[in-house]
Amino acid sequence: MPAMHARHLLLALILLVYLLLATLYAVNVPAWQAPDEPAHFNYIHELATTGQIPVLRAGDYDEAYNRALTSQRFPPELSIAPLRYEAHQPPLYYLLGAAIFRVSGGELLPLRLLSVALGALFIVVIYAMVRLIFPGRAELALGAAAFTAFLPMHVAQAASVNNDALAELLLAAILLLAIRYLRLALLGPRPPSRWDALAIGLLLGLALVTKVSAYVAIPVALAAPLIAWHESRRSPIHHSPINHSSFTNSPISHFPTHPSSFILHHFALLLLPALLLAFPWYLRNVRLYGNLDILARTWHDAVVVGQLTTGELLAQAGLAGVLERFFAWSHDSFWGVFGWMGVWMDARIYTAALAFGAAAVAGGMWQVTGGHRSGVSAQQPASRLMPHVSRFTSHVSRFQTWSLALLALSALGTLGIYLLYNLQFVQPQGRYLFPALPVISLAAAAGWWSVARWPEAARWAGIALLAAAGLAALWGVTHEGINRWSLLILGGGGALLLAWSLARPRLVGAAQGWATRLVYALPFAAMAGLSLLALRVFILPQLR
Q1: Within a domain: 461
Q2: Is the pTM value of this prediction over 0.90?
Q3: How many domains, the chain?
Q4: Of 426, 543, 420, nearest to 37 (Cα)?
Q5: Looking at the domain assignment, is residue 500 inside a domain?
Q6: Angle at Cα 462 formed by Cα 459 and Cα 465, nearest 5°?
Q7: What are φ and ψ of residue 244, in 5° steps?
Q8: What pLDDT sits at residue 369?
Q9: Among 52, 305, 447, 474, which residue has the fewest nearby CB atoms (within 10 Å)?
Q10: Residue 478: its pLDDT value, please?
């Protein structure tokens, strides 16, 4: 089977499994048992029935009533109508939801399935993005897509009514187009056109009227032409007859003449459509809420009172208690704490997830620190004989570096929003990090591929897990007692990775390739199984 067909079949399989899992969640999770789902639904209901965008008013958030609803699992005698605290949100997602609401007669399931569909597009965009950056590394694109598709908490969120799915999709699409813009600027076959800049600007405008978390797209969109302008000041890229099938079959193009005016033109094409789309929303908010509160955040914070603040927790538990809760809850809820942060999985599952994450980080660190330099010596003679090959390789490398920098910029923006929010309120919910899934999933795939592919990386990862087991034992001795399951999972995982580092070099031919692919695929397959297990074993028994 040709490699391209195999990649497409595997991507189709990932999407099919995701759609099955997310649909099971959408159908079976009881109504309103997803964070903020009633408030999002009420926004759509009001928009669909009155034709008016809701206004956030004092009294739209009642902490005591919210706790009564969630603690009693939303009994039918308690109405969800008072939950209107999402009325400050930008309207784009809710306009889509209102159309579905009218067609379906106000049923909850079709609105959940809208989020499922947006989540599927998000997976496809992540796959396309990784393929664009690393065209010869299909395993990374498939691994990143699988990580996003099968992450249990993301499956649960993608099967509920919320505006996160659209915000994540638009942010990922802007990243994809920004990376494509850089590819055209550095590698050709033509310079980025005004239409390339305009497309980013239009998507940016849609993101601005979707959710504040998508605002991290602003620096990403503006960085793309700045990087292109910076690269235009380097030595020019000459046309080359090289046929590098992984990137382009066309000659590499010059950057346009007069790059400064070119970039200013593209800045205008980026910003003007975005501002034109967002300005009416900003003007409305200023008129309603005053004080130049264009995002309605100040008014929202004044209305949403009664939540536990970080200052209050700090006074109760001290800095160590705040940090312990922040890191533990962030990690566990990233993988899956369901309902309204009340349905936890077995603690051993979170330990196994931690072990996988630690192994992937170790593999990534081994790769970044130069552990894998295969092929360098083989390329050097060719580069000396054909300097244009060296120039081409240099521009490919710079394109990948800048692309990863854009991804990092986006992830840092998401992390910054998360940290600032938690400085104000106690909200260590890992789902707030999902806009950074393009980066997180690529990092997980790349790190784990290093572990599966290179014995030295597997050895690093094994040692890291054994060291973690030792730290867990030391913590247990000095605190509440040794957790034997933690020692077994971390130590056993480390021993298995050390065994793999010894076994892989002894495999030959096709057996080595198949074994490597199997080891690489195992965690992602386990994540898919965990998503189903979480629904059947933890979520439904507790929420029903």
Answers
A1: no
A2: yes
A3: 1
A4: 543
A5: no
A6: 150
A7: -100, 95
A8: 84
A9: 52
A10: 81
